[in-house]
Backbone:
């Protein structure tokens, strides 16, 4: 009996750590130069590591099909809830790719200004873009992101009637995945299952 209970407690603790970790995905499907309603970039935000929020920004097939030389993500914008203070005074909380920098309250094309804008150089474009922010949780992020992608094929001319473009801004806040069920639910379910098995063994 003690062995069973000990095993349950250990499994419950491990279950809590796994279930508390969550991730959510958003699609950027609007553009200032290309057709709207197309999946251009996907943003995945996860809190698998305690005290750290990880971002993964990936270009989708619609952009990879028109990729030319030096193609990649040139900048990315994100907004934070008002309670979060992130500025040049604590920008060391941002873990960025090499030679990338951060600016605050900067514009991202037609999407307007963003609380945080990450920027690389012409030689440090990323695909995918990965970065992390310390001391943030999923609840601190306001859905709605923007990205500047550059390095399109010169032959690509965007929408009919527009001149050829080599880069564009993309925006979006369409959620494409759900946050996992809270840890309490899994713990309750595991406990009920174990108690049921114990009761069955006693009757036997």
Residues:
């Amino acid at each position: 009996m003690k062995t069973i209970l000990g095993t349950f407690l250990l499994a419950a603790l491990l279950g809590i750590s796994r279930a508390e970790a969550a991730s959510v995905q958003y699609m950027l499907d609007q553009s200032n130069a290309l057709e709207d309603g197309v999946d251009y970039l996907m943003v995945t935000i996860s809190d698998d590591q305690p005290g750290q929020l990880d971002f993964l920004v990936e270009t989708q097939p619609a952009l990879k099909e028109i990729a030319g030389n030096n193609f990649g993500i040139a900048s990315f914008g994100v907004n934070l809830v008002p309670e979060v203070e992130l500025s040049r005074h604590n920008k060391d909380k941002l873990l960025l790719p090499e030679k990338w920098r951060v600016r605050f309250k900067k514009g991202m094309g037609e999407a307007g200004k963003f609380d945080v804008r990450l920027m690389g150089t012409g030689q440090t474009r990323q695909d995918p873009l990965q970065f992390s922010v310390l001391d943030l949780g999923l609840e601190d992020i306001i859905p709605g992101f923007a990205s500047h992608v550059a390095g399109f094929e010169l032959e690509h001319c965007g929408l009919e009637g527009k001149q050829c473009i080599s880069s564009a801004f993309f925006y979006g806040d369409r959620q494409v995945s759900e946050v996992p069920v809270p840890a309490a639910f899994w713990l309750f379910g595991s406990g009920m299952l174990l108690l049921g098995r114990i009761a069955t063994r006693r009757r036997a």
Remarks:
- Helices lie at 2-20, 61-64, 183-203.
- The first helix runs from residue 2 to 20.
- The mean pLDDT is 82.
- The longest strand covers residues 67-80.
